[in-house]
């Protein structure tokens, strides 16, 4: 996966933007408020169907525009154009791939695997389980065939079970049928997650060891229900308690990743800086495992690199990214902090986001820096 052309219109302050990124490291510099994060946001919307800054995509539409369109061409034989459009007047995100409308977000996500490292990233550790579950499922989805289908079926069964639980008079037959369905697909989801974890953990530990010495840190998967019992059993036995709560309290929808240092949750022990390194290792490990198992590379979006990591860790982080040979977009206000950490032979494409006189941000390819080894 490699983007060889990007064209955005109507995205925040970015104005019309159409450029050819490099297949490797793209460095984006610009003053505060120039539109660097918006550029990454556009890529994130393209690959994930949602922004990392706002829940409501309409807020990302430029104030003076009626819609935004985000387009990327993925290199290949033939190349694959992908695009999304969000009109202010319509609530839906229109998605296209290869000239055709697509209805499932999963198709977009599959086409453009990406990971984001930004100043909010440490929330992966301290935030609610949903974020960690999403991180986990991103990996399983890209690597394990059949995961999406199993998860969709489990979710559907869960929705029906929850609706029945809330219903005054419960139809016992329907409930049993949906429980069976949820148990079947929920166990499948759990198996795939578990298999994925078994390959992820060693990659993560190896990546972490290169960034920071924390030999006691353990990453563990918790499946969301009792280890000793089948999901079917848990659902049957939990019926009346679930009915009182009005929702299903145990199941794959409650899965989590537990990150501990010795016996304590890592967030309680680690400094903010250490947390950022752990999160960086998690995110880099996702891309490394994707590459190892599928041969596909992951797109990296790194917002405000110097805010994330100090000079020494920036260097290690960038060396890891280099070794992965993936495409990356990395922003900063500081030119030197962006250029410094790379090996001298790594080609760097530098772009400068400038405020145009009209107020719209413009992306001006500033220079193609191409160091050669001595
Ligand atoms: N919907 C919008 N329409 C137009 N401009 C916007 C919109 N939302 C935010 N902005 C402006 O876009 C600018 C770019 O912000 P941002 O991408 O965060 O810049 P940077 O990351 O370079 O500091 C900010 O000046 C902000 O005020
Ligand atoms: Mg920013």
UniProtKB/TrEMBL annotation:
Keywords: ATP-binding, Cytoplasm, DNA damage, DNA repair, DNA replication, DNA-binding, Nucleotide-binding, SOS response. It comes from the Bacteria. Residues 3-338 form the RecF/RecN/SMC N-terminal domain. SUPFAM superfamilies: P-loop containing nucleoside triphosphate hydrolases. InterPro entries: DNA-binding_RecF, DNA-binding_RecF_CS, P-loop_NTPase, RecF/RecN/SMC_N, RecF_2. ATP binds at residues 30-37. Gene3D superfamilies: P-loop containing nucleotide triphosphate hydrolases, RecF/RecN/SMC, N-terminal domain. It is found in: Cytoplasm. The RecF protein is involved in DNA metabolism; it is required for DNA replication and normal SOS inducibility. RecF binds preferentially to single-stranded, linear DNA. It also seems to bind ATP. Belongs to the RecF family. This is DNA replication and repair protein RecF. It comes from Billgrantia bachuensis. The gene is recF.
